[in-house]
Design the sequence.
């Protein structure tokens, strides 16, 4: 038994007949071929697979593709624009907010949601917001710095754009 | 120096932050089959029958293999770390007649899709005959315990020991003796990317190509070739992007052998990706030691002798280096102190649990924990300040190289300088005053110190099971671009950046002109890998030496053309500049071109610009430092909260402070996690109770304080760059600092020790219990 689903990922429509049990993360990685979204625990604890679904950060390992039928998904591959890294990507790079890089896409997508809700988060707010995303390499310190730095970049760009 | 010593952001990161890199799970090959593994649900049981018929009938299933086929066709799991006279059971890739731990592989399924493979693995029916299990190493060593390997008379895997000086005499003449039993609990490495392997065969030579998430592609290639019985020159291993490892991928696992065997058997690409549940149950664990420690001292706090008896729970069998990890504990147990007499006794026991092996620090965190805890126990007994008892027993800088009673020679150090700096940055005197005030208010704040030393840059070959050297080829192409091939196989450490910094400075060129490649055995000279904080100190030195060879050759060519003494050239700004006052210089690119055009070469000079060097250090390096941890324990909840953490580390010369700080941050947090959160728990039947990240408590962002880091710099004399290594220092130094702080906080209750993990309920019980009594 399969179901036909249509999911927009990074602005492009993907259609496929899928088993109802197919996880969204496998749809993204295997049907759409976007492997920047990683799988770390398959139980929604580690957050490596975090993507934006209709603007909300969700763990794509605990959502079925059929539940995302008609949704608008953004993955790490959709963050850079016109060849320029997103401020979060830029700041993770500058602040050494990653080592092995496996958790990084999920961290960035989760941080993206935080900054959409709170343009000037303090350290405690950042740490709390990232609690659903595990990193085993960095001890989180430079991730927090990266999110703070990105928040500054986003604020400045909004001012520059007259928003 | 233009790049070395600077905080330069990583060359690796653009691909990683954009999601465009490729980990093993990102590899998809046409016609690829997916492997799933059926695993034991029992810790100890005979296998009467394995029924694969239902699995084979499931549409999409291609192949099922079981233990007897694999035992006939494949060699066993390799064991490189050996101790004389150790009992050495043979461990096949799949169980044949019995299982000895929960999660042991019993059968493997190949299917066209990973969902089907998983379904089929669950359809395999195994008829078990359960046997009594043993999970406590001290019980496993007692007569009458269930025996895990029937070919042996008991569960004692091996023993090891040594004595330096006369400990009995030292203890007889001591003013004070303190004793304590420490448990160094079992941990799971939990890299964010679990393990995974893809294998395929490629024409024209039917070469076996294996992509594996590994720290040791070369050693894995050799072992896989032996395991599946093909010539080694028909095997190639590639470590693609590796998502963390921490020692857990410094190994050769059953699944790697199965994937390789099944790719050869079926002629199709085969992929296996470990689930997180499998990762916690079936990837090596770390630590798991019980330490009985006795320290003998003079009244003034001078240490005169130590005894350490270690019971190591190594699990059900040996993985690659299992047996030698607890041995390292003995080498480092005297720590940063003069311990004139030292006796070390190690007994390793088989239990019905996953094998232990190298996990970040690997035997050294256990050593550091036992010495740093017992120093605090002694300080408490003697009513001395923990800083002063440490200071009193440090060897002085003039005493290096320093022969320890652990049997190693420390290369260089100034322990007191790091201690003083940590005390000053943390305002130790002020902290002690604050503590006294808080105690008057009935509040429990503790200050914990740890003055650690560790063994890095592994190491001379005589001390290593599979070669203590590393290789590098440095090639300058005719256009002047440099390719560095390194046998080290980094997996998050950032050597593509730090190695490029070194080469660019040496050659006087830009970092963008240097490309560092690693991880592919078909491109590289044979190498060892990245572990034991060795990549820069050993692999970096091989590269450094290869660059020196090329510089000599370039100087010779330029000297011949310019008629300048080749010894006189400096490499700056893309030029070889004669430092003889002649003002002569030649462009770097022109010299390289001459090496390839080869018309003006000095007599006896070969064309080309490539050098390969293998470097074996004469000794380990010994980084050190002092960490200060401040903890407040909530009296009502027992929750320990770190309110301040200062780390002063000395890893010798620093190539890139950004990377060093990153290693220290991550290392400290893993050590803090052992002290406060993490523990692999098996019940008495050998069932794993912490099999998911719901139960195995990894630290989260909000659990942690902002760490304050600083450094002292004591170059190592062991390698020309004076580097020591930093990958494990944080983990080794931090655990005892945290537990010392907790014990210090609760010392008004008469507490002398609390076993890890120091969870709130444990502390709450101590506070309530002691108060009630």
Sequence:
């Amino acid at each position: 038994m399969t179901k036909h689903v249509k999911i927009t990922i990074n602005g492009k429509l993907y259609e496929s007949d899928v088993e109802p049990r197919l996880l969204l993360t496998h749809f993204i990685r295997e049907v759409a071929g976007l492997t920047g979204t990683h799988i770390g625990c398959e139980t929604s604890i580690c957050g490596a697979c975090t993507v934006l679904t209709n603007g909300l950060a969700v763990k794509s390992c605990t959502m079925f593709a059929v539940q995302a039928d008609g949704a608008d998904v953004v993955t790490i591959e959709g963050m850079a624009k016109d060849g320029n890294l997103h401020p979060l990507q830029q700041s993770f790079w500058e602040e050494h907010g990653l080592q092995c890089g496996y958790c990084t896409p999920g961290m960035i997508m989760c941080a993206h949601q935080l900054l959409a809700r709170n343009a000037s988060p303090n350290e405690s707010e950042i740490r709390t917001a990232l609690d659903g995303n595990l990193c085993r390499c960095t001890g989180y310190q430079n991730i927090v710095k990266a999110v703070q730095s990105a928040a500054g970049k986003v604020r400045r760009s909004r001012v520059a754009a007259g928003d | 120096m233009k790049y070395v010593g600077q905080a330069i952001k990583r060359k690796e990161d653009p691909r990683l932050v954009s999601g465009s890199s490729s980990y093993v799970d990102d590899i998809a090959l046409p016609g690829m089959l997916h492997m799933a593994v059926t695993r034991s649900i029992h810790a100890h049981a005979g296998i009467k029958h394995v029924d694969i018929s239902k699995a084979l009938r499931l549409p999409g299933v291609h192949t099922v293999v079981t233990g007897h086929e694999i035992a006939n066709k494949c060699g066993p799991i390799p064991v490189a770390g050996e101790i004389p006279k150790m009992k050495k059971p043979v461990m096949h890739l799949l169980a044949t007649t019995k299982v000895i731990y929960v999660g042991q592989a019993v059968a493997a399924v190949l299917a066209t899709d990973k969902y089907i493979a998983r379904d089929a693995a669950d359809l395999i029916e195994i008829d078990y005959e359960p046997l009594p299990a043993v999970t406590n190493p001290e019980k496993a060593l007692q007569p009458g315990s269930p025996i895990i390997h029937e070919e042996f008379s008991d569960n004692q895997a091996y023993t090891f020991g040594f004595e330096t000086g006369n400990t009995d005499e030292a203890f007889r003449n001591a003013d004070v003796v303190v004793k304590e039993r420490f448990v160094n609990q079992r941990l799971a490495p939990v890299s964010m990317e679990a393990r995974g392997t893809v294998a395929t065969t490629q024409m024209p030579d039917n070469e076996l190509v294996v992509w594996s998430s590994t720290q040791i592609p070369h050693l894995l290639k050799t072992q896989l070739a032996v395991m599946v019985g093909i010539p080694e020159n028909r095997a190639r291993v590639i470590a693609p992007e590796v998502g963390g490892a921490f020692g857990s991928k410094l190994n050769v696992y059953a699944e790697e052998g199965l994937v390789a065997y099944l790719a050869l058997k079926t002629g199709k690409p085969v992929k296996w990706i470990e689930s997180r549940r499998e990762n916690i149950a079936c990837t090596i664990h770390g630590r798991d030691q019980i330490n009985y420690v006795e320290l003998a001292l003079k009244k003034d706090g001078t240490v005169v002798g130590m005894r350490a008896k270690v019971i190591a729970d190594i699990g059900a069998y040996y993985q690659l280096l299992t047996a030698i990890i607890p041995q390292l504990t003995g080498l480092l147990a005297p720590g940063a102190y003069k311990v004139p007499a030292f006796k070390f006794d190690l007994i390793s026991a088989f239990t019905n649990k996953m094998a232990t092996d190298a996990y970040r620090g690997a035997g050294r965190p256990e050593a550091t924990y036992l010495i740093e805890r017992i120093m605090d126990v002694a300080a408490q007994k003697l009513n001395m300040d923990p800083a002063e008892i440490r200071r009193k027993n440090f060897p002085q800088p003039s005493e290096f190289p320093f022969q320890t009673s652990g049997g190693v020679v420390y290369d260089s150090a100034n322990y007191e300088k790091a201690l003083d700096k940590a005390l000053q940055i943390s305002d130790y005197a002020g902290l002690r005053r604050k503590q006294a005030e808080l105690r008057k208010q009935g509040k429990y704040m503790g200050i914990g110190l740890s003055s650690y030393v560790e063994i890095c840059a592994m190491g001379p070959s005589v001390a290593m099971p599979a070669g203590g050297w590393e290789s590098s080829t440095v090639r300058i192409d005719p256009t002047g671009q440099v390719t560095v091939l390194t046998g080290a196989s980094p997996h998050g450490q950032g050597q593509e950046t730090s190695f490029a910094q070194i080469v660019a400075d040496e050659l006087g060129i830009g970092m963008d002109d240097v490309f560092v490649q690693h991880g592919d055995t078909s491109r590289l000279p044979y190498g060892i890998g990245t572990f034991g904080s060795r990549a820069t100190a050993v692999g970096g030195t091989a590269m450094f030496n290869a660059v020196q060879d090329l510089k000599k050759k370039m100087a010779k060519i330029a000297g011949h053309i310019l008629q300048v003494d080749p010894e006189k050239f400096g490499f700056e700004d893309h030029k070889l500049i004669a430092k003889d006052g002649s003002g002569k210089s030649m462009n770097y690119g022109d010299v390289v071109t001459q090496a390839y055009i080869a018309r003006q070469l000095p007599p006896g000079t070969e064309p080309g610009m490539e050098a390969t060097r293998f470097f074996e250090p004469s000794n380990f390096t010994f980084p050190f430092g002092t960490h200060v941890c401040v903890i407040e324990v909530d009296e009502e909840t027992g929750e320990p909260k770190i309110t301040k953490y200062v780390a002063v580390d000395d890893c010798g010369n620093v190539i890139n402070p950004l990377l060093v700080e990153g290693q220290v941050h991550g290392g400290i947090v893993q050590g803090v996690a052992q002290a406060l959160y993490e523990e692999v728990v098996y019940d008495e039947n050998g069932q794993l109770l912490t099999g998911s990240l719901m139960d195995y408590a990894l630290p989260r962002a909000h659990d942690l304080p902002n760490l304050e880091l600083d450094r002292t710099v004591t170059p190592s004399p062991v390698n020309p760059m004076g580097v020591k290594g930093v990958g494990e220092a944080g983990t080794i130094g931090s655990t005892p600092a945290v537990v010392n702080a907790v014990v210090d906080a609760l010392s008004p209750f008469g507490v002398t020790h609390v076993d890890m993990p120091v969870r709130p309920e444990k502390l709450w019980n101590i506070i309530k219990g002691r108060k009630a009594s």
